[in-house]
Amino acid sequence: MGTxxxxxxxxxxxxxxxxxxxADATVLLDYTHFSIRLRAPxxxxxxxxxxxxxxxxxxxxxxxTWHFDTRLPRMLQTGPExxxxxxxxRGHLVRRRDPVWGDETTARHANQETFAYSxxxxxxxxxxxxxxxxxxxxxxxxxxxxEYDARISVFTGPVLAxxxxxxxxxxxxxxxxxxxxxxxxxxxxxxxxLLDQSxxxxxxxxxxxxxxxxxxxxPPPLGPFRAFQVPLRGxxxxxxxxxxxxxxxxxxxxxxxxxxxxxxxxxxTDVAQxxx
Length: 276
Description:
276 residues; alpha+beta; Extracellular Endonuclease, Chain A; 8-stranded antiparallel β-sheet; 18% helix; 25% strand
């Protein structure tokens, strides 16, 4: 499937924002209104970036077929075998509806492209309040940006830690990060968030649970989703991705207050707590 409308556009906002580039080598894949940098050794995206035009979104039904990206060998992609007969979901990194804007042909093309396995990462299937909040972050930021130009760019990725537990040939991430960027009063603004699905177990309990589940061909234990707003410096350190330009526009770390330290995270239970 060829790309319509180009990949992620760094000039989409009033101020240019480059696609973050991890320190480790990645493969760049352009889709319709979004791009992915895939870390081949992990078979997962390191970062996904999408441009969202809130005034041109097309309300298409949730329809699409999961597929491999033919530009890459299948062995470099996390395919259906990882999600078969277990409690893992194919978690969209770029949300299905985010790049679905423009004319109908372009919107439908973008909708289907979000179902590429390169745009998925294993996540716990159990739905809870934390996950609902995580999925609504873009909507909340987009509503905020509506007053200005109804455009945002969103960057998302898993935290690919060295000690992530392997399962069926893929190490399962425990944390995911998201950054929303927009312009207000002619200046760039950004906000960063972290999703943690680490199991709430002690060290010994966790080791035992991992052994038992892997012996039963089940994915490693994952905990309830907890969503946080965090300083972008913290995301940069966790993900190993330089974010200098975005850090300078962080609404959580600046705005007349002393900069927050990297580990100063705020647990979110409602979107009303988010600082924009």
